[in-house]
Amino acid sequence: QQQVKQSPQSLIVQKGGISIINCAYENTAFDYFPWYQQFPGKGPALLIAIRPDVSEKKEGRFTISFNKSAKQFSLHIMDSQPGDSATYFCAASIGSWGKLQFGAGTQVVVTP
Amino acid sequence: DVKVTQSSRYLVKRTGEKVFLECVQDMDHENMFWYRQDPGLGLRLIYFSYDVKMKEKGDIPEGYSVSREKKERFSLILESASTNQTSMYLCASRGEGSTYEQYFGPGTRLTVT
């Protein structure tokens, strides 16, 4: 049973548009929420992470929004570029050193 | 530059064979992990190791074992491969410094026929 539910499974967005990926969790003990980005033929790489003491974190065109009461967090990719085409995984753990529970992944395709 | 390497990109084995997947990291990291990646299921943790000769089961350890004789090397063993172990296997490592990032290798696509 997946502890972190991720949607949508896939997403097609035009260049310059906004990509939004949503994740939900049940375990209120989770307190570290990273996002990983995976390009074809490569392993995942950490993109951005957030802790529940903040509601939003921004790094460049990538923003995590966190809603503790709803037990949901989302990744927004602003001004999406073809180079952002990849699979994105949300994850959660208890403590930064805890085992990561990954979502199912979202394949994002940005069309020129 | 951080590097995690895996011994094979593609591997084809027969049912019942013993399979070894090797992972090496050059970052002097204490923690190493084995995941399998399947469409629609994301990454699921098989085993992890927090020190040489130390190991802990992850969420799906059945049918797998691991070995960590040296700090830089973490091996995943399929004692008797089965078709339901056909998957992408990813190794990762993580240090104990200020960053909690896991660094992943490129993966091994294992097909069991």
Written description of the protein model:
- The complex is a heterodimer of chains A (112) and B (113).
- Chain A has 112 residues and is mostly beta strands.
- Helix content of chain A is 0%, strand content 53%.
- Chain A is built from no helices and 11 strands.
- Chain B has one domain (4-96): Immunoglobulin-like (Sandwich), CATH 2.60.40.
- Helix content of chain B is 0%, strand content 56%.
- The interface between A and B is medium-sized, with 22 and 20 residues.
Could you give a short description of this structure?
Chain A is mainly beta. Chain A is built from no helices and 11 strands. In chain A, strand 6 and strand 7 form a beta hairpin.
Features:
heterodimer; A: 112 residues; mainly beta; Immunoglobulin-like; six-stranded mixed beta sheet; five-stranded antiparallel beta sheet; 11 strands; 53% strand; globular; B: 113 residues; four-stranded antiparallel beta sheet
Question: What separation lies between the terminal Cα atoms of chain B?
Answer: 37 Å
Specify the helix fraction band of chain A: under 10%
Largest interface, counted by CB within 8 Å of the partner chain's CB: A-B, 22 and 20 residues
Classify the beta-strand content of chain A into a percent band: over 45%
Order of helices and strands of chain A: EEEEEEEEEEE
Fill in the CATH topology of chain B.
Immunoglobulin-like
Q: Note the overall shape of chain B.
A: globular
Report the biggest beta sheet of chain A as strand number plus sense, adding barrel if it closes: 6 strands, mixed
Task: Assign a percent range to the helix content of chain B.
Answer: under 10%
Shape of chain A: globular
